């Protein structure tokens, strides 16, 4: 029962909290927060609790391949959004994610190689986004009241589904499906509909800048969970993810996003 409560509450609570912070401070912060392992982290932790350290390590290593699929989702969504509506962009993005994830689900690689692939995908993806003129981050438009409950429910369903099927899917397939774009899909669709494709690309660029932290988190869990155990491994991985996000923002010369307050808190 305790583990079921963790599945139902931990990841949805993290997603809702990050969503509220993103609403307060704008598109870039929203993208950076979505790039944290808010869903993948709890899935990997529950996987370790249910199946042990070795299973969790292999799942975390495979999650790095899932991040390559996630970068494909971002690029396809942004490109299709320029020509069609939000529904077509969502479906095309999901198909791209699943195609890449299922292809990678047939292979098993070392965590270091997976980190290199994920980092390369996140470096390439911004170059494949539509070219937009730079615009100051604008306040996010007001979202409907059911937005946060919808994110929480979708997150809980993903966590329950993946962790419940982990034994049958195996660590590799579970890992590549772990980064499925739940929050990315919801946020991107609303930004596209309410504010347009330029602000959508702003959100995606913020996400891709922060996604290096996501990759480092999965890598550190993969290499540390067996020798150090889950508590130390996940704590170090989270610190590494935050440090990587800070470094990525510093290297990009991004202005302080918190100064860009929202009109609709």
Structure description:
The protein is mainly α and 265 residues long. It has ten helices and no strands. The chain has helices at 2-25, 27-34, 40-51, 53-81, 86-104, 111-128, 147-177, 182-195, 197-228, 230-252. Helix 1 (2-25) packs antiparallel against helix 3 and helix 4 packs antiparallel against helix 5. The N and C termini lie far apart (36 Å). Residues 255-265 have low confidence and may be disordered.
List the topology elements.
Elements: H1 2-25, H2 27-34, H3 40-51, H4 53-81, H5 86-104, H6 111-128, H7 147-177, H8 182-195, H9 197-228, H10 230-252
Helix pairs in contact: 1-2, 1-3, 1-7, 2-9, 3-4, 3-7, 4-5, 4-6, 4-7, 4-9, 5-7, 5-8, 6-9, 8-9, 9-10
Brief descriptors of the model:
10 helices, globular
